[in-house]
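tool=predict chain=A
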Amino acid sequence: MMLARNTILNLGVAIATLLVGITVKSDLQVGAIPSQPQNNLVVRQIARPPNKRTAQIQPMVATLADGNYQFCSQPDTHNWQDGTGVCFVFQKSDRQVDGYYGYPHSDNFICVKGQVEDNRITGEALEISWAGHEWTDIPQSAFMWDAEGRLILSQGNIVRTINDVEGRIDWILFRKAKLNLGGFYQYNSPRMTSPLQLCEWNVR
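tool=predict ok
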């Protein structure tokens, strides 16, 4: 009789132990985290790595030191190209900038100079009209010079004309020019032709 009672008692303890083990295992499978550790069980939460995305900060033209610069709408590819996208090559002195805006490896450019505020330049623009790149109609009202819509010109007039063996050449002065370089990329150093070689402001 005593043996049977001990057997039943031992069997009850075994069943209770088995039930506790099943309960703890079930809690771990469904990801339940007990408010207090049970049976010396330590639950460890895995921390996620911090978000390493950082926004690229574009330089402000107005805050640049005096010197020569090249800004382009596309990043520097560090290959044979002088620039990608549309570019502005200029010299900065205090708040005054003097340069040209256009597409690398082409004759499609225009001289721009004026005062800079943040990344916006307000001033004048000088365009050359020649055979193969001729302006037949000079707008007086505001229009966009480029496909990107960064340069807005108005009040254009011919300030000088010459005729040579290749035909007529006109210098067109736009008395109002607004150039927005916001979001452009600064290159390490100018690689395109210097504005001093392309822009003839003394034709006026």
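Residues 34 and 151 are 64 Å apart (CA to CA). The longest strand covers residues 151-164.
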